[in-house]
């Protein structure tokens, strides 16, 4: 169990920091706030958001499938989805926004 508790949030954090860094460098607003506020570009933003989150979700499912195959010798898809949401999706959403804001703040200080 500790394998999942360490590896999946770490992978999610890696993807979140990378995406948040790109958001900050591009000067984009907070991740979901931007989707909610941009009515004209909403469809494109949702499509891009799904691409980013899908990578994290698929990586978490694969990690959990490997864990289940080694440890449980069976694959439980419902458990894999729940674990992927809790251990990967939630940390991703919690990390991406703050990283983007910090990078955007840092860039604004460097420009001044």
Keywords:
112 residues; mainly alpha; 4 helices
Question: Would you kindly provide a written description of the structure presented here, covering whatever features stand out?
Answer:
- The protein has one domain (2-111).
- The termini are far apart.
- It is elongated and about 55 Å long.
- The model has no long low-confidence stretch (mean pLDDT 84).
- α3 (42-72) crosses α4 (77-111).
- The chain has helices at 2-26, 31-37, 42-72, 77-111.
- It is mostly helical.
Task: Summarize it.
By secondary structure, the chain is mostly helical. The protein is 88% helix and 0% strand. The chain has helices at 2-26, 31-37, 42-72, 77-111.
Secondary-structure map with pairings?
Elements: H1 2-26, H2 31-37, H3 42-72, H4 77-111
């Amino acid at each position: 169990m500790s394998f999942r508790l360490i590896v999946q949030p770490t992978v999610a954090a890696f993807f979140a920091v990378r995406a948040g860094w790109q958001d900050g460098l591009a000067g984009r607003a907070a991740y979901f706030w931007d989707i909610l506020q941009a009515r004209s570009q909403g469809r494109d933003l949702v499509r891009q958001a799904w691409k980013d989150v899908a990578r994290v979700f698929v990586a978490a499912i694969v990690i959990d499938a490997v864990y289940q195959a080694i440890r449980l010798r069976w694959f439980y898809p419902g458990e894999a989805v729940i674990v992927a949401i809790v251990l990967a999706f939630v940390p991703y959403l919690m990390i991406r926004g703050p990283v983007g804001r910090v990078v955007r703040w840092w860039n604004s200080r460097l420009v001044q």
